[in-house]
Design goal:
By secondary structure, the protein is mostly helical. Helix content is 77%, strand content 0%. The protein has one domain: MetI-like (MetI-like fold). The protein starts with a helix and ends with a helix.
Length: 295
């Protein structure tokens, strides 16, 4: 067999696996609907500069509170800024924070969960106490504390989301690690002289990472809602940067003058949450049909 065939075979196998998963998602009405919404939201955020020629921070007082029209598809706000442009660019910020914060939370949660589950008993107890202590703080109180120390910023939102999500991921990984560390293949690897790092990376982590990835995909809309909520309260993205939460806040403040600002701020949050939730539920059913049977 030629070297080229050996290279192409794994690639073809992975591509076939992705296509098979995609077909199974599209067979489910909610999965297809969720995937469509997610793709539309992501493409709208990526190509925001192409889809609109208005700058999201450009002021035009003469056009303030303009209703939806062919010129301004979602109307304008109290400062004459184009809402369609602000929604698209706000999607960039929402997705960047959601994906970045979820990815960082996932890495830290896996690392801490493996250490807690595989380490000595006293370390496990200390880390469990730490997880529970951090998890017990209400999100808003935690945000207020960080904002008081650092001021409203994207970094504050990122830190809040990471602190909220890491304990949950770490506890799940810890529980599965406790089960797997006494499994036969792990005991065999240890008896053959494999080090702790190799056992965790090769024999345990590949077996515990699947469910946590599905959980992380379902947490993305939660992170988007947290970012929007903090920005709505003035604790997140600072003006003039566009954020779905700040747009929603502008709408509530000026709801008597223009109802369309509330719609422009709330609709993308609802659609994005529905898209990622439906897609995450379908992925869970695809990768673990036993959960679907129990439901």
């Amino acid at each position: 067999m030629s070297e080229q065939a050996l290279i192409e075979r794994p690639s073809s196998g992975r591509l076939a696996g992705v296509q098979r998963i995609l077909r199974r998602i599209l067979r489910e009405p909610l999965g297809a609907f969720g995937l469509t919404l997610v793709v539309l939201v992501v493409l709208a955020a990526l190509f925001a500069d192409v889809l609109t020629h208005y700058q999201p921070t450009k002021l035009s007082p003469i056009e303030r509170f303009a209703p939806a029209s062919f010129q301004h598809l979602l109307g304008t706000d109290q400062l004459g800024r184009d809402l369609f442009s602000r929604v698209l660019h706000g999607g960039r910020i929402a997705l960047a924070i959601a994906i970045g914060a979820t990815g960082l939370s996932l890495v830290l949660g896996i690392l801490l969960g493996l250490i807690a589950g595989y380490g000595p008993r006293w370390l496990d107890n200390v880390m469990l106490l730490l997880f529970d202590a951090v998890k017990s703080f209400p999100t808003v109180m935690l945000a207020l504390t960080l904002v008081t120390l650092t001021g409203p910023s994207l970094l504050a939102v990122l830190v809040v989301v990471v602190l909220v999500n890491v304990p949950g991921y770490a506890r799940i990984i810890r529980t599965q690690t406790l089960v797997l560390k006494s499994a036969e293949h792990v005991m065999a690897a240890r008896s053959m002289g494999a080090g702790t790092a190799r056992i965790l990376a090769v024999h345990i982590m590949p077996n515990v990472i699947g469910p946590i990835l599905i959980l992380a995909s379902m947490d993305i809309p939660v992170v988007i809602a947290i970012e929007a909520g903090l920005s709505f309260l003035g604790l997140g993205v600072r003006p003039p940067l566009p954020s779905w939460g700040s747009i929603l806040n502008d709408g509530f403040v000026n709801i008597r003058d223009s109802y369309w600002i509330v719609v422009a701020g709330g609709l993308p949050i609802v659609l994005t949450t529905l898209g990622f939730t439906f897609l995450g539920e379908t992925l869970r059913d695809v990768f673990d049909p036993r959960l679907k049977a129990r439901a």
